Amino acid sequence: MPFAALGLPAPLLRGVRAAGYQTPTPIQQRAIPGILEGKDLVGAAQTGSGKTAAFVLPVLARLLEGFHALRGLVLVPTRELAAQVETAARDYARYTKLRVGVAYGGVRIEPQERMLRGDGVDLLVATPGRLLDLHGRQSVAFEDIEVLVLDEADRMVDMGFAPDLQRILRLLPKKRQTLMFSATMPPELNKVAGQALIDPMRIDLAPATRTVAGITQAVYPVPKHLKTDLLDEVLKRTSMGSVIVFVRTKHGADRLARQLERRGHSVAALHGNRTQSQRERALRDLKRGRVQLLVATDIASRGIDVDDITHVINFDVPHTPEDYVHRIGRTGRAEATGDAFTLMSPEERRDVEGIERFLGRSILRVQIPDFDYGRRQAAPEPGMHFRERERESGGARSGGSRGGRSESSSRPSAPAAPQAPSHGRRPAKADDRRSRRRM
Ligand code: AMP
Q1: Cα→Cα distances 394→153, 197, 244, Å
Q2: Total-model pTM
Q3: Ligand 1 centre from 48 Cα, in Å?
Q4: What digits encode the pLDDT tens for the residues 237-252?
Q5: Closest by alpha carbon to 206, among 40, 43, 327, 33?
Q6: Mean pLDDT taken over the chain
Q7: Nearest 5 degrees, angle CA 21-CA 22-CA 23?
Q8: Taking Cα atoms as reference points, which of 65, 73, 125, 92 lies closest to residue 11?
Q9: Residue 295's beta-bridge partner residues?
Q10: Which of 236, 38, 74 is nearest to 151 (CA)?
Q11: How far is CA 17 from CA 11, 12, 23, in A?
């Protein structure tokens, strides 16, 4: 489908061509016609999907018709996103007379006031706190606003902007079009959405390019040979519902499933060597709560669609950042309550760093108190391959050198990663969310 078929006016099509776009992305194809018709929208699409153009183009089309005033408002969580959206909007609007402005905190307010009071803008991209400040100083009026966009709405809520959003909603004209983009729908946002949107169309396109906001991520550094022990500890210390444990190989999946079973967990395994009926049974058992843990390989995970996975645990760090995003996308689907833990051996550190670069942020390192990270490292049993040791000792919790926690915890602990912060017994929500910040 070409852009021309979407119903956009000619000057905007020129702007799109000048931006170098050939064909609309899926979200643009699905969202633009409906927005042009004036419908409200909830879109679960993320950065990288082309969502900015999906709302900016039809909003600009609407603003092209009618008088010059502040009629379009885009609210975003951060100044970076504000600047990005503004740049995109200016690009698409370059063959029109529409004026686009931006306002965010952390910089002087006066130039923004001059911009708004002078010639004014048709479309304003703003962070909620600064917008309210401007409104408080009577530098911006909302009475002509006819279209509102909440972009990355869950991040706004995450950053503590829910009360500001509600205040802004109260100040805006009731008769307007509202578009909301959000990767997840936390309860607070649901409330905002209930107030802000009328019978919205819903578009759910969450590509595996960035992680879903609301998923709490943590990395547990641990020597490779202690991964099963650490996983066992994490499972015991954390309250979890249904869990998917990811491993790299089919063989590894079977082995880990056996080891976990021997330690008293209810487990099913899912991988390419399983028959269709075995796979279906594994998924059914997980869905119905007959098993708590599903040990799966990446390939097998593609079709998994279980709503209330509370935790995803990467027993092995995935090969690629895309696989990581895909894996952790299994949790936090319905609500923003998913946790994603990754067990990282020293050999996997670079892979984790690659994931962090891809995500554009670091993931908190977590260390379990009382867990003996130094166990067996100093003196591996001579002549015994790691796999054999694993097989031999897996589940042999009574007796033997592996067994008792009390024995191991009495030894001095040697953290796998010196920078890892320690914390209380239940792994704290490894939360790198920012505290409330007025922008
Ligand atoms: P977004 O998801 O809005 O952050 O967009 C991601 C990137 O895709 C941006 O660099 C856009 O310029 C680009 N983009 C958006 N729509 C298209 C399209 N239809 N064709 C090619 N690139 C696009």
Answers
A1: 46, 54, 20
A2: 0.54
A3: 6
A4: 777 888 999 999 989 9
A5: 43
A6: 80
A7: 105
A8: 92
A9: 245, 269
A10: 74
A11: 10, 9, 10
pLDDT at position 428 is: 35
Q: How far is CA 205 from CA 36, 43, 56, 212, in A?
A: 19, 7, 17, 12
pLDDT at 69 over 70: yes
Q: What pLDDT is stored for residue 395 in this prediction?
A: 33
CA 191 / ligand 1 centre spacing (Å)? 30
Tokens for 51, please give them. Answer: 């969502």
* Residues 6+ away with beta carbon under 8 Å from 67: none
pLDDT at 343: 96
Higher pLDDT, 275 or 332: 275
State the residue for tokens 């408002």.
Answer: 73
Ligand 1, atom 8: nearest CA belongs to which residue? 50
Burial 213-240 (b: 16+ CB within 10 A, else e): bbbbbbbbbbbebbbbbbbbbbbebbeb
What's the confidence (pLDDT) of residue 47?
A: 63
The yes-or-no verdict on residue 414 having pLDDT over 60 is no
* pLDDT of amino acid 287: 83
Most informative mutation of 47, 52, 84, 87 for ligand 1 (most atoms within 8 A of CB): 52
For the Cβ of 26 lying below 6 angstroms from any atom of ligand 1, the answer is no
Tell me if 50 CB under 6 Å of ligand 1: yes
Angstrom distance (rounded) from CA 248 to CA 232: 18
Q: How far apart are CA 150 and CA 128, in angstroms?
A: 10
pLDDT of residue 237: 79
What domains can you pick out in the chain, each with its CATH number? 3-205 (3.40.50.300), 215-426 (3.40.50.300)
pLDDT of 300 reads 63
Q: 160-172 pLDDT, tens per residue?
A: 899 999 999 999 9
24 lines ligand 1 (CB under 6 A): yes
From the alpha carbon of 46, which atom of ligand 1 is closest?
A: 2
Tell me, what's the pLDDT at 356? 83
Six-digit token pair at 410? Answer: 């009495």
- Cβ atoms within 10 A of the Cβ of 322, count? 15
Closest CA to 229 of 419, 393, 428, 399: 393
21 Cβ inside 6 Å of ligand 1? yes
The 3 state secondary structure assigned to 2-45 is: CHHHHCCCHHHHHHHHHCCCCCCCHHHHHHHHHHHCCCCEEEEC
